[in-house]
Design goal:
Layout (H helix, E strand, L loop, with lengths): L2 H5 L3 E5 L7 E5 H6 L10 E3 L9 E6 L4 E6 L2 E7 L12 E4 L2 E7 L6 E7 L6 E4 L12 E3 L1 H8 L7 E5 L1 E2 L3 E5 L1 E2 L2 E2 L2 H7 L3 H6 L9 E6 L4 E6 L2 E10 L9 E9 L4 E10 L9 H5 L1 E3 L1 H9 L6 E5 L14 E3 L12
Parallel strand pairs: 4-12, 10-11, 17-23
Antiparallel strand pairs: 1-2, 3-6, 4-5, 5-6, 7-12, 7-24, 8-9, 9-10, 13-21, 14-21, 15-16, 17-18, 18-19, 19-22, 20-21, 20-23
Amino acid sequence: MSKGQGLTRRSALVSLAGLAGGALVLPAMAAVATDPSKLKPGQFIWTPEAAPRGPLSIVVSIKSQRLFAHRNGTKVAVSTVSTGKKGHETPTGVFTVLEKDKDHVSNIYDADMPFMNRLTWSGIALHAGQLPGYPASHGCVRLPYKFAELLYSITKVGTPVVIAGSYTDPESVSHPGVFGGLYDRSEFADIADTKRKELASDEDAPKPATSVLVSTRDRKVIVMQNGDVVAEGSVAISDPDKPFQSNVFVLSGTDNAARGLRWEAIGYADGANAMLPDASTIERVHAGPSVVAAIRERMVPGMVLVITDDSISKETQSGKDFVVMTTAAADDEPPKK
């Protein structure tokens, strides 16, 4: 393929700070070659055509002040951000989008928070705001205005958001079951005409947001749908003396070759030692039949599974929040000055 041919395949949208929401349309090949670390405050890369369909996952890097969005493990966007300043640090951990409001106004500071994707009911969110080039918020993740609008158009309630000091890019892993409930050949053939069609579907029709949280420390699993606990129970852990890395798995579909489920796996850590998960992480967790049944009933693309060594407590999960935090939460966004 010649360079000229490659440039006509797709384009990337890069928003520049100071252009009042304006944007430049650049060739895709130039966008692919762009080093995200060289983006200036307010700039972003937007290439949704790289993976136009499938479950979305978002990672915010505190260290690099960048947001990365992936569909089915393919990077579709990178943006500069501004996270919480000293004394109001943005909490790290795993969140899901709880609420969306394009015209949100902070109920704490009476400040505009356009294209808000809420992560906690206490006030942490992704939204449009000022990006001075360093952490400057009171806990929220500020985004360039145009990027916030674009991101808002593809997120859903239940979209997983990982905010971390270090992380791994998503990698596909497959497993023939979940938590000890394995699919045998005949069972997988049976779901081929029913559940597998739903799992393989990439339609944008609204689906219940299902999240599964496993605490290896507490030996406990919680299944939540649209924020409500629908099942919970104890889990058994294989090799209990072997530590777990903190992992997020996003269900992307079925794997015919493996006769099982295909997940996009992300490793994260508060420090600098995030390690990539693999199928053995899922294999080590065993839940009771009622929990396995509750998970199977709700398996659709985008279902989020979090396995962590942290405890499930009021500091990590409460009410209708689905949050696994490794640092304390901060306050809402202050008014603009």
